[in-house]
Amino acid sequence: MKLIPAILSSTLLLLVGCSSPASEVRYYQLVAQTPPAIDTRVQQPLVLAPIKVASYLNGSGLVLQQSAVEFSIARQHLWADALEQQLQRQLTEYLLLALPKQPLAAFNAIGARTLQLEIDRFYASESGQAIVSGRYNISGAVLDSTVPFSYQVALANDGYPAMVQALSLGWQQLLQELVAALAVTHSSVE
Which domain range does residue 123 map to? Predict the structure, then answer.
């Protein structure tokens, strides 16, 4: 007789556990900002190579650095688009708006400069900093320079939305640096 209430209570607990709502999956997108247009005489075409992102960053989950050697990848806080795609789209849009006289070219364009971008870090640290770092290379007929970059932006609040906002600010700082570098490298080859 005592076995029936135990079985019923176990079954009831199992049913309640299965019917409770699962944690909600949330999707995030980087914030895009509209840059001011720079009036340049840039006419030399520019090829944008596909952005390379470190493999541990290129999944769907946002990445959080737990310690110097430990990272966690979120399962319920995901990028709305693949990170590489978001970065490539925003880079293209930003350059078209910031450098309206800078034509973008196909990969096999003769005489074009090439911009290659590699992202090694794109995450938040346990200390409350969003970190964006890597290197970019601008190459052309007479020029080839590789430049490392590293940006740290403090998170305004706790949580994934604040993390994405801070990562967006770090990314925007890099975009501004790239526009300035492209304008300088063009004027140095004229």
Answer: 26-189
CATH number assigned to the domain comprising residue 126: 3.40.50.10610
State the pLDDT at residue 112: 86
Residue by residue, DSSP assigns the chain as -THHHHHHHHHHHHHHHHHSPPPPPEEE-PPP-PPPPP-----S-EEEPPPEE-GGGSSSEEEEE-SSS-EEEEEEEEESS-HHHHHHHHHHHHHHHH-TT--EE-TT-TT-EEEEEEEEEEEEETTSEEEEEEEEEEE-SS-EEEEEEEEEEE-SSSSHHHHHHHHHHHHHHHHHHHHHHHHHHHHHH-
C-alpha span between 107 and 159 (Å, rounded)? 40
Q: What is the pLDDT of residue 101?
A: 85
Give the number of domains in the chain.
Answer: 1
* 16, part of any domain: no
Q: Tell whether 21 is covered by a domain.
A: no
185 assigned to some structural domain: yes
pTM here is 0.83
Distance, CA of 176 to CA of 95 (rounded, Å): 9
Evaluate whether residue 179 is within a structural domain.
yes
How large is the average pLDDT for residues 8-23? 46
Question: Cβ–Cβ contacts within 10 Å for residue 96, how many?
Answer: 14
